[in-house]
Amino acid sequence: MKRFVVNIICGGIALFFAIIIMDVFMLSFENRWSMFSHERNVIDSYNKLHSLKDSNKIIIISGSNGAFGINSRMINRAFDMPVVNTSSTADIGVRMQFEIYKEFMHKGDIVVLTPEYGGGYDRLYGGSALLRVLSTFLPTAYSKVTLKQWIYVYKYIGIHFDNAINTVNDMEFDGPYSDYYLNEFGDIECERPHKDSLESISINGEVEDDYVAYLKSIFSYAEQKGINLILLPPTLREHEFKAFNKQIDSIANILKSNDIFFRAKPSRYSYHDSLYFDTPYHMTQQGANKRTENIIEDIRKFMSEN
Prior knowledge:
Elements: H1 2-27, H2 32-36, H3 41-51, E1 58-62, H4 64-67, H5 72-79, E2 83-85, H6 94-99, E3 110-114, H7 121-125, H8 128-136, H9 147-153, H10 157-166, H11 209-225, E4 228-231, E5 236-237, H12 238-243, H13 245-257, E6 270-271, H14 285-305
Parallel strand pairs: 1-2, 1-3, 3-4, 5-6
Helix pairs in contact: 5-14, 8-10
């Protein structure tokens, strides 16, 4: 009986390590989409911030609403400071969007955080995009992933592997999602005409405790380091803003009850439908310019008050 139990334990241990080895193997594969799409901005931003580590700068942290909705050149001219827009996709998750670049944030820096709406674990921890950008560009950043985050994103390892080995060679990389249109600041800079038919989205008004706790931790970190961390609402098409107004109010109120504040009313960053490109978060170039004017005003207001 004793030998049987020992065999079961040893077999379990062997199986555990076999699974770990298989997971590491699957995560070792790079993803062609990340290499040639706007997701390349993750490594480009990392390298830019490394070169600016001793300089005061403005860092923009966001999902694709920042990549397709901000004109960093206007911000650069307004404040005469280097601007690095790190935005690519919300599926990286707020936590790693911040943690990847945290080491480059110093006293006097301005960090504009404008995540897409939501407060679930998907918004906090990310999904398959997190795995493909880390595996492709920054495998050493896996050390920043917490155990709880690993438990959540573990289900995406197989998806990452399947996408990595099945990305066909004739994928189109010449559209607005191509890395060709990343400018020197990290923005997507190309003509993006309005489309009448946009991808649909849903917004949940609930916010997980872990999401709140993480936001609190980075605001505390910013205060200790003398970093000017500014939380702004994302841009959102007027149609969806009206449809999900209650959920957006719920998110803002939950954050407010935990002393986490948007530095502008969410309605300030909702614009006419004609200013959006292919999703309710992605703006035309004209829309991005209009939104950026508001961002500049809100940064100036924050800096004058702090």
